[in-house]
Amino acid sequence: HWVADSGFARAVEEYLEAERAAVDDDIEVLTSYGPFRKVKEEPE
Question: Are 22 and 14 in contact (CB under 8 A)?
Fold first, then answer.
């Protein structure tokens, strides 16, 4: 999106960067509990 006010545009950009990082973290955590997670096999 284009925002006319450069200060507000920067604030939106910073928020979206932080939100993207938070969502990536959530995906990583939730994936580790899912049925298709990669499980390390323990040596016998």
Answer: no
